[in-house]
Amino acid sequence: MKRRQFVKASGLILGGLTVARQVSAGDPCPPGGLEALGGTSGGALACPRPSGPAPAWVADLQTNQWTGLSNVNTMDAVYAPNTGQYAVNGPRQVMGAWSGAILATGLGNYGSMVHWGGGHADYYGNELYRFDLETLTWIRMNDPSPHCGSIASTNLPNGLFPDGTPGVPHTYDMICYRSAANEYVAAGREYNNSGFGLYNMVSRFNLDTRTWATHNTEPSGIATRHMDCIYDAGRDVMWAVNTYSGGSDWHKWDFATNAWTTYSMSGTDSLGAAQYVPTRDCIVYVNLAGTMYGLDTANPGDRVLLTKTGSFPSISSNNADPMFWSSELGSLIFCKSGTGNLYRVTPPSGDWKTGTWTVSPISASGSSGLHDSNGVYKKFQVAEWGSIVVAILNERPTQNCYAIRLQ
Q: What are the Cα distances from residue 90, in Å, to 95, 104, 396?
């Protein structure tokens, strides 16, 4: 993870980013509200990597107990100023309008949660925000395009503003983190604010250079505009499984060729959750009925009905229930949206196609205050630092982050 420079300032606007509060050498690094590339010639704070195996706050977590963390600030302290992009609800809808997040392990000493969202008439701004997991600090990474307000009255060619930056949609789970290049990747961008003016075209935001790269092709035969996007680090590809109203195909985006490949899947399904299982080289997905299927990523073809013991809770539509792999636990961790209730999904010891998968609840307490009426999506993530496993939930821009230690 990289060493960065952060600027000390007070009551200034520097590089288009408003400093939200007084910043001094004694503050956490990075300071809240301001992030600069490459540092400056005067007053720069160096942020060396700490020696601890995990962020210091992890030591205060109790196993299987949701805990509100002591943030330095909340996301609303670093909102972009209104330059015509606030629409109906403003930047709070980056998080609230059916949008998720990624866990960028290469951004900051211990990684960061990165949020990009809004869409429809909720919010037009296309800036990104990050929550630094070392310092528990919210930072705005860039400013919205000055053209963002135009989406209210104009169809954007390929969903791109005149400066080449993408129109932000409800991101749902159409996003992933590409660790090979330290990129935020989205497989959807909005071309108008109708709510359905969406292209399934790939946009990549480099978290080091703060620049966008965009690609203007969609998967063939796509049956729905909403997909769950899953990064496969071994192949450096992104898998996309149809969600929401159902679909009969799944897709692969290859970052080497910048091209989609589509694979047929029999039947139609409204998918509830999906994730890659690296130890079995497959994607597991759960439909709204709680039925589990597998997709063979080594030999892409039709879905495989999986046998399981145990059951899921009622599955939310729109793929609002996230699921992530923990290499330390050897299991998928499923989060029931709106409750904070967690489940382990453990693969069989033998053949993943014919063996029995196990679904078991995790006895987690302290979740009564965790609720988002529009869905959690990927605002829930699983972080691993050595043998330490922590689930993290950023749900509201005006409240602190929640975390639970699983190991």
A: 11, 25, 13
Q: pLDDT tens digit string along 353-374?
A: 999 999 999 998 988 667 666 8
Kindly give the pairing relationship between strand 101-104 and strand 341-346: unpaired
Q: For 174, what's the count of Cα atoms within 13 Å in the CB-facing half-sphere? A: 29
**8 Å CB contact between 283 and 277:** yes
Q: Using 50, 70 and 90 to split pLDDT, how confident is the model at 230?
A: very high
- Between CA 286 and CA 282 the distance in angstroms is 13
Q: Where are the domains of the chain?
A: 1-49, 50-405
User: What residue has token string 């059951």?
Assistant: 311
Specify the range with the lowest mean pLDDT, choosing from 33-37, 56-60, 130-134, 324-328: 33-37
Q: Coil, helix or strand for 318?
A: helix
- End-to-end, the C-alpha distance of the chain in Å comes to 23
Question: pTM value?
Answer: 0.89
In three-state secondary structure terms, 70 is coil
Class of domain 50-405: mainly beta
